[in-house]
Amino acid sequence: MAGTWQARSSFIGLAVSLATFAICFALLEAGLAFSQGRLQARLEQAYQNRNWCYRQSTHPELLYEGEPAVPRCGTNSHGYRDSEHAYTKPPGTQRIVIIGDSVAIGQGIPARSTFASRLQRRLNARPGVAAVPTEVIVLGQSGYSTSQELFLMEHIAPRYDPDMVVWMYVLNDPAHPLYHDANGELGRYYYEPPVHTTHFLQRKLFELREIQASRDCPVEYHALLHCVYRREVRDMIARIGRLSDTLAVPVLFAIHPVFPRRGGFDSYALEPVHAQLRNDAEAAGLEVLDLLPAYAPYPPERVAQQTEDGLLDPWHPNAEGARVVAQALYRKLRQGGGLATTAAP
Predict the structure, then answer these.
(1) Does pLDDT of 106 surpass 50?
(2) Which residue stretches of 47-195 are H helix?
(3) Which residue in 196, 325, 188, 206 sits closest to 254, CA to CA?
(4) What is the rounded end-to-end Cα distance, in angstroms, of the chain?
(5) I want to staple 237 with a disulfide (CB 3.0 to 4.6 A). Which of 163, 280, 330, 334 is the partner?
(6) How many CB atoms lie within 10 A of CB 142?
(7) Which band of pLDDT confidence, cut at 50, 70 and 90, is reported for residue 202?
(8) Domains of the chain
């Protein structure tokens, strides 16, 4: 009898423990789901007077993509902020595909003023500069990180049969699409975790690992990213190089600086990050264009946009900054950057 009673007590205790765990798990899951709903409602409220230009992507790696053919967003039928481009390349035409994020798409400036639009006009305007008509095709989305841009390079860019890829690298690109907010929380808005609790624990583990890895790293955000994720950055750039070889398409790796909010480019503190990126890209077999020297003669306030609160936007060039980028790219291409060009002055 005593053994039977002990067995029943153990069973009851286990059942109570399992029931308690299940209740706690259900409450936590419900709370996290509610928190996700509040985040989505907050973003919808924030964007109600702006252009909501995105939708959930059919590709899990991307999380979100541009809403196709929305005039107020300037998107084409494929969901990119660009003019219309058929997948089939016209005979006698060469193509440059630009891969990147909001800097690549020219967020915040008119479509005609983006560096991609300026570059296309400049390549085609003067006889003898481009040996054949040249299309510049923009494949980028606001907030995309390098991991998402790699998907574009591997799966989307080949559809356009490019003759060259310009990879516009911005110093917040190593950010995680979900666990950092470099995309303005768009990743978290569109990601629906199968189990909220599991996703929450994974996020906290990610944050703890990042804190531990950052102990000997600089405090400045962009330098911190490239310190903590040094190996990941190097590996992703190496993957760009392998894709370039696999697709037989040359890649020009363009490094876009951060606009200093205090002082000018003469006191730019992130040059060591640029040097690291240049070395990684060259080791991967990529052509490199560091845009820092192109921006250096200008005061940051002349080439950068301003935020809504009147501060200098650290990432996005204004129309003048886009002109500087287009000119630097044009000069690089004239030097033999992978396209059919002549030595026209």
Answers:
(1) yes
(2) 102-105, 115-125, 146-151, 186-190
(3) 325
(4) 102
(5) 280
(6) 21
(7) confident
(8) 86-334 (3.40.50.1110)
* Beta pairing class for 251-256 and 94-100: unpaired
Which among 237, 60, 34, 66 is positioned nearest to 139, based on CA atoms?
Answer: 66
1-15: pLDDT as tens digits: 555 656 566 656 566
Residue 339 near residue 132, CB atoms below 8 Å: no
Residues 6+ apart with CB under 8 A from 243: 150, 153, 154, 251
Give the per-residue pLDDT at 4.
65
Return the pLDDT at 344. Answer: 41
Picking from 119, 136, 130, 133, the residue whose alpha carbon sits closest to that of residue 85 is 136
Look at residue 343 in the predicted model and tell me its pLDDT: 42
- What is the spatial distance between Cα 289 and Cα 253, in angstroms, rounded to a whole number? 6
Q: Is the pTM of this model over 0.90?
A: no
Contact 169, 100 (CB under 8 A): yes
